[in-house]
Amino acid sequence: MPKRSRRYLQSIATLDKQAKYPPREAVELVKNLASAKFDETIEAAINLGVDPRHSDQMVRGTILYPYPASSPPKVLVFAKGENAERAKEAGADLVGDEELVNKIREGWKGWKKMDLLLATPDIMGVVSRLGKLLGPRMPNPKAGTVAQDIAKAVSDFKQARLYEFRVDRNGIIHMPIGKVSQPTEEILQNFATLLSTLMKARPSSFKGQYIRGITISSTMGPGVKVDIQKARELVETT
Fold first, then answer.
1. Are 154 and 165 contained in the same domain?
2. CB of 225 closer than 8 Å to CB of 47
3. Phi and psi for 62 in degrees, rounded to 5?
4. What is the CA radius of gyration of the chain?
5. Is residue 28 part of a domain?
6. What pLDDT is stored for residue 174 in this prediction?
7. In the chain, which residues have pLDDT < 50?
8. Which of 197, 159, 148, 169 is nearest to 44 (CA)?
9. What is the pLDDT of residue 114?
10. What pLDDT is stored for residue 1 in this prediction?
């Protein structure tokens, strides 16, 4: 069991682990419990009833928040010609074509420092050579990471409003919804947008309780459970 800091232990001592809070109370509690010296990110962990081992129960896609949800990500773009120039102008941190693909194939690991990998459709035939190396980080149209308008995609992601989501092997979606320094109202609107998006992404073949649990926490703080019914009401009224 990892050793916890005194700050963490002091924070969790004031928290009722069994309680499930309305979204606003949960967000404000998380903000009050955050005590790191940096501006912590607030993340939502949403437990879905799906079994991602079955392809027809995979939940993935993109979400566009009304407000930034974290610090701007580092973006790598596979593109060539005019698209490469547009990506650079839009703020991409690294842009390359087939030469970059070959560099990665030869063992260059700098791409792992990037938070997000994007590509234009016309270069995906080359990028596909990296399938085994990139794994789930491979640019994908369904995730919004393969885009014809690469400048807009880079801009949206760099504003920390556009995100890719994908259920993990345990059926949980982990997503940032804001920073501790942000107004509670902005975090709540991002949270409602996330829930609404996930509800729309519910697999048509899935039967049973879809959302089984919601927990939010700051980077260094303890998790706070959210009342699911109250969360649904937030979505309906936002």
1. no
2. no
3. -125, 155
4. 19
5. yes
6. 97
7. 1
8. 197
9. 96
10. 42
